[in-house]
Design goal:
globular; 12 strands
């Protein structure tokens, strides 16, 4: 899975669309059946500045809360779009970038959910170690989409049923699949993944 430089942190509402507009691929979000708030999150780039992936949020803006009951009240879904890319040279010609796959989308979705998770039993210092361990686990799970941790479900993408890999955790759900020219990942909490649909974003102003 390709490693990219990301804009980290809790998503900032009304984040600029500049990075999204530099992408050479189409962005995806929840389809028109979702009528709640939409917002931009972050894009990920390679060392040469090429946009490779990014996320859009839907519903409540997720926060990191140690109060489990408060976190459970959040209702959000984040859609991750990853450019489908083959193995290729870096922009400066000094290295090789791995191909992006459905596993790339699953990994970004899994790690994204962890960013907004804080088990009530952990203090600040312990959470850093916990996050490292859980992130490594998310990577391993994303690399084994045919394993027992994942099930499958079919969700519409631009109105066409598409198979997705799906798994649940105590912190929320994660799914990943592919569309034309991109891989789509998603994660959320408080909203059922089974009722979601995805569509290409025609106007980023809806998220600004």
């Amino acid at each position: 899975m390709e490693t990219t430089r990301r804009v980290e942190g809790v998503p900032t509402a009304r984040r600029t669309a500049e990075g999204y507009l530099r992408a050479s691929f189409a962005w995806y979000g929840l389809d028109e059946a979702f009528t709640g708030p939409r917002w931009l999150m972050q894009v990920g780039t390679t060392a040469d500045g090429s946009v490779q992936h990014g996320s859009t949020g839907h519903g409540d803006t997720p926060t990191i809360k140690s109060d489990a009951s408060a976190a459970e009240k959040e209702r959000f879904a984040v859609v991750v779009t990853v450019a489908a890319s083959p193995v290729r040279r870096t922009g400066d010609g000094t290295g090789v970038l791995d191909a992006t796959t459905v596993s790339s989308a699953a990994w970004l979705a899994g790690s994204g959910l962890l960013v907004h998770t804080w088990p009530a039993s952990l203090d600040h210092a312990t959470r850093d170690n916990w996050l490292d361990q859980q992130t490594e686990t998310a990577f391993e799970l994303a690399d084994d989409l045919d394993g027992p941790a994942w099930s499958t479900l079919s969700l519409p993408v631009d109105g066409v049923p598409v198979p997705f890999h799906y798994r649940e955790s105590e912190f929320g759900w994660i799914l990943a699949g592919s569309a034309a020219g991109v891989h789509i990942g998603a994660y959320g909490r408080g909203m059922s993944a089974y009722g979601l649909g995805f569509s290409q974003i025609k106007d980023l102003d809806a998220y600004a």
